[in-house]
Design a protein that fits this description.
The chain is built from eleven helices and seven strands. By secondary structure, the protein is an alpha/beta fold.
Length: about 280
């Protein structure tokens, strides 16, 4: 068994439930590497998961405390935990692109608006792959999927001048980053910095699904070829010849706010509660 799995994961849950060649294992390992570099013990962190491929792979693998949320609602549960738990306890969420940018987007935006101290890792495989490969919020324009056999025509969050990270920044997110699963140390470093950030942080990680998306959209059925496709489009050199409409990925830290910019939600409410208890609230007479 992998060293990190032995150290941090429950033995009966450590074996992957993902399809052969799936990039989710790479995402999971990067998170564990960041946790190890920070010296976080299993009792120091509560790990929540969403629904779909990401939830099935990662939920309840962590040796410490775990929880799961119904589709798109994990952020509301995490916010409640943030207020109930000691400030030094870390909260980490792993969700898919549907949980984050579809059904859960409103909850995610409110979590960013409040600047709750938690870290969200969005594992994005370009659509709803666990239910057969339907297109969704980050599926590339024109991609062939089960629900778009003639090419995806529904505008997405990642092309034509839009970037979902811009919306999250406007909502109040303090730390935002994007990577692909084929990246190494820089992705681990970004996750580590997100966990260290005091306030709301999110890391968007794109990974290949060889069972559905890659076999139908670019027509790639071999895992090595799928990972190569993603690597070629990760921070491509200016000399790379990709059409303007082709999806490529500029990765790294997208936004980092100063700690004094916005108060963390739990700290703000604890200070407010203390003020009320000491008789310093507003006079409502």
């Amino acid at each position: 068994m992998d060293r990190l799995a032995t150290k941090y994961l429950k033995p009966r849950k450590a074996l992957s439930t993902a399809c052969a060649g799936c990039g989710l294992g790479q995402v999971h390992k990067k998170i564990l590497l960041a946790i190890e570099q920070l010296g976080i013990a299993d009792g120091d962190l509560v790990w929540g998961a969403g629904i779909g491929c990401t939830g099935r792979q990662i939920f309840n693998t962590w040796k410490g405390d775990n929880f799961a949320g119904t589709h798109g609602r994990v952020y509301a549960l995490a916010t409640g935990l943030r207020l109930a738990l000691p400030p030094e306890k870390k909260i980490l969420l792993t969700v898919g692109d549907g949980d984050a940018f579809g059904i859960g987007l409103l909850h995610l935006l409110h979590c960013a608006r409040r600047n709750a101290d938690l870290t969200v890792i969005v594992a994005d495989n370009f659509g709803y792959q666990s239910t057969g490969g339907q297109y969704a919020w980050t599926t590339p324009d024109g991609a062939v999927t089960d629900s778009s056999p003639h090419g995806m025509q529904d505008p997405n969050w990642m092309q034509n001048g839009r970037d979902i990270l811009d919306m999250l920044r406007a909502a109040g997110a303090g730390f935002l980053a994007r990577y692909t699963s084929v990246e190494g140390r820089n992705a681990v470093s970004g996750i580590r910095q997100a966990i260290e950030h005091r306030g709301f942080s999110l890391v968007h990680i794109i990974y290949p699904c060889v069972t559905h998306f890659f076999s139908k959209a670019p027509g790639i059925r071999q895992p090595a070829d799928a990972h190569r496709w993603l690597r070629d489009r990760t921070n491509p050199s200016p000399s790379a010849e990709f059409p303007a409409s082709e999806l490529t990925f500029k990765t790294g830290i997208f936004h980092r706010a100063g700690h004094d910019t916005t108060p963390e939600f739990g700290e703000q409410l604890r200070a407010f509660t203390k003020k009320i208890r000491e008789g310093g609230g507003h006079d409502t007479r």
